[in-house]
Amino acid sequence: MIKITLPDQSVREYEAGITGLEIAKDISPRLAKEVLAITVNDQLYDLHRPINEDANIKLHKWEDAEGKHAFWHSSAHLLAEALEELYPGIKFGIGPAIENGFYYDVDPGERVLTDADLPKIEKKMIELARQKNEYVRREIPKKEAVSFFEEKGDPYKVELISELEDGTISFYEQGNFTDLCRGPHLTNTSPIKAIKLLSIAGAYWRGDETRKQLTRVYGISFPKQKMLDEYLQKLEEAQKRDHRKLGKELELFAFSQRVGQGLPLWLPKGAKLRERLENFLKRVQVKYGYEPVITPHIGQKELYETSGHYAKYGADSFQPINTPAEGEEFLLKPMNCPHHCEIYNVKPHSYRDLPIRFAEFGTVYRYEQSGELHGLTRVRGFTQDDAHIFCRPDQLKDEFKKVIDIIFYIFKALDFNDYIAQISLRDSNNTQKYIGSDENWEKAEQAIIEACEEKGLQTVIETGEAAFYGPKLDFMVRDAIGRKWQLGTIQVDYNLPERFELEYIGQDNQKHRPIMIHRAPFGSMERFVAVLIEHTAGKFPLWLTPEQAVILPISEKFNDYAKNVLNFLNNSDIRAVLDDRNEKIGKKIRDNELKRIPYLLIVGEKEMENNQVSVRRQGQGDQGTMTLEEFAAFIKKEEQKLLEEIEASPSPSKGVE
């Protein structure tokens, strides 16, 4: 007999070899119909896999991330089975579950798969799912596994198996398809009721640009057609909000092949938006005692060797820049923190000087593969709203909590009120990924956990997600249509101060090592603007939007008056523009509403005679007429009210799940 401990800590006894599905049936027949996978002692299992020793378990339904993982992983195998039936001889790479759905990388040989093929593949997947074939796990010796795929002529699977240890290899079979896989999977294909293949893309084998480019087929599946319909509706809304599309329409940013992939060009309107965001954070930082610094875009290779960045990321960064001097090498700056450490070291410090807070909107460069680039969210050059706090151990928690307050303030200002606070810790079973002593890691992790508890912050813990030099607190934000983004990060670091030999003289007149807090509330300006565009659908808050009003003369004969209105508003610190095209007023209104400009000011003979404007509000229609002075005062009052509400509203105390 073995003891099975349930999540409520109740214990049940079963014979060894009991399966998750049998446990679910014992608890409730309804649960047995809904359960998709089981966690056994922190390892995700199939429901048919035997449990042979005492275990803590958790049964997972569709609502759980683990349940979705098993569902979508099984759907990836179903996709592969359909492809093999439709295109005999096709070769397979990997087919994992992802955050939303699944994909499979395949080598179709001489064939070319296109979007036109997707409906046919979907149809075959549904046909196979209705056969209710079981997913059967089989553990086999490495030699047998290699022989199977060599005989089949699947070199990608042979390569994967060659890197595995004997005794760790498992196959899964369903219907006529067999795949190399760790699992877990559903018990059979019948729960997969609704399928949509979303797109086809290219993907280099093992992410290596020197290897063959495979065809990646993306898809998603659900246990009910209604769920798929809702998802596709959300996907349609996401496409409307796509920051790449809106960024072009709103003339915020652009990319140029001549400049280079992943290197955004900020257009005048985008530069104004970004400048307002920067100024907003700078005002907050002044209140919290930050001092501005500026560092160069390059640094000597030795700087990043000292920090550890070169050892961790050098192979994936831009290659060193050689100067005419023999042996002298520079790197494009991948991080701001080593530079800030050197600024700290410019002069000696006393315990009375601490905390010292350096802030910089510093541009950094990291080489991303071309296939990974995506608008502003994944680029090769980006600007971090970076700051580094150097503090004493007794100041650490208070400084950490103050950074949390800054992030809350930004969330309130931009209406991000659905978020999860994630504590990212080191993987203690894989310590070679990190630098620094166990003692320092334990102190840093404990400081973050205690600071979050003292702020009353509801958190989730992710092991293995820490930065290589220290644990961190990340804020995972859901936007207006429910998508999750990582915005805002705070990291505690005992290690860089040691590597750069940072010191301060303590009250005991002895040398001590400061602790370093890395902090970026926006993360990067590029990514943050992308998320903001999609969250607001391009309708920015009045205090932030690059253009608050557009002046629309009814005909050319009122252009001179419209220019006077423009000058008056600009001199009154109202961000206004003029549309004096020789077009009908209806077209001008429609065109400028598409630009998401909050206020449309129509001027004709009556307005010119009375020194007025007719006011239309984006999405609300006619607001009546106002004098120029009244409209300027109206805009300032509305903007001020928004900012006062941000200042006055209480800080959130808990993450929202």
From TrEMBL:
Which reactions fall under this protein's catalytic activity? Answer: tRNA(Thr) + L-threonine + ATP = L-threonyl-tRNA(Thr) + AMP + diphosphate + H(+)
Where, per UniProt, does this protein localize? Answer: Cytoplasm
What is a single molecular function from GO for this protein? Answer: threonine-tRNA ligase activity
* Cross-referenced Pfam families: HGTP_anticodon, TGS, tRNA-synt_2b, tRNA_SAD
Cofactors that this protein relies on: Zn(2+)
Residues in TGS domain copies = 1-61
Q: Which residues form the Aminoacyl-transfer RNA synthetases class-II family profile domain?
A: 242-541
Q: Does the keyword Transcription regulation apply?
A: no
Q: Which residues bind Zn(2+)?
A: C337, H388, H518
| Cited SUPFAM superfamilies | Class II aaRS ABD-related (SSF52954), Class II aaRS and biotin synthetases (SSF55681), TGS-like (SSF81271), ThrRS/AlaRS common domain (SSF55186)
Xref: Gene3D superfamilies: 3.10.20.30, 3.30.54.20, Anticodon-binding domain (3.40.50.800), Bira Bifunctional Protein, Domain 2 (3.30.930.10), Threonyl-trna Synthetase, Chain A, domain 2 (3.30.980.10)
From which residue to which does the signal peptide run?
Answer: none
Q: Which UniProt keywords apply?
A: Aminoacyl-tRNA synthetase, ATP-binding, Cytoplasm, Ligase, Metal-binding, Nucleotide-binding, Protein biosynthesis, RNA-binding, tRNA-binding, Zinc
The record's comment on protein family reads:
Belongs to the class-II aminoacyl-tRNA synthetase family.
Quaternary structure per UniProt? Homodimer.
Instruction: Tell me what this protein is called.
Output: Threonine--tRNA ligase
Q: Which organism is it from?
A: Marinilabilia rubra
